[in-house]
Design goal:
alpha/beta; 233 residues
Length: 233
Amino acid sequence: MTKSTTTLTPAYRDLHRLMSLMTGDEKHGPAATSTLDALWVLYDRVLRVTPETVDAPDRDRFLLSKGHGPMAYYAVLAAHGFFGEELLAGFGSYDSPLGHHPDRLLVPGAEIGSGSLGHGLPLAVGTALGLRAQGLTGPRVWVLTGDAELDEGSNHEAIAYAGPAGLDQLHTVVIDNASASYGRPGGIADRFATAGWSVASVDGRDHEALYDAFTAPHPGQPRAVVARVAAKA
């Protein structure tokens, strides 16, 4: 797999250029652009994982549950050197490792294959439990989901389990672009809070607000950050 050879510090302004290189047929453009800012802040300022540490036991784990429309994810990974940007032009083609859904066996840095909705959060719960069982208390587990994805019952089971289990290594980012089919009494944040999660709801385009929410302490509780973005994004 080709790795990036650039030594330049990655910059947010590079992302739109990188995304423009992916010209393959893609019907999930809004699903990608709505995640761009949250992904950038995570990889640039929060996650403790690099191209050199993707297999290290003490790395942070990031699971992209919202695996449809992965262009922003690929752009962020390329910007941070997980693979060379020359791969982006082949996005979605038959012989490209960068498919319309990420494949963990083909995409450097991808922890799971995703795209079938409702799997990422349960997998993240299992990952956090596995780390706990191994005595690895340092690594953090992050999973990015969408508001419509929370319609899947498997997510509610994971939410209901993780709070009482005190999985404070677990972090969920919910991209709320008002695309869910079903409303929730009190909203998304209350769904997590009533299950014993530490919760914040922020502007999903505000990098400082995202960073503060991502790094707030939450001892003994899993953390959920609801990142609100415009529906058209």
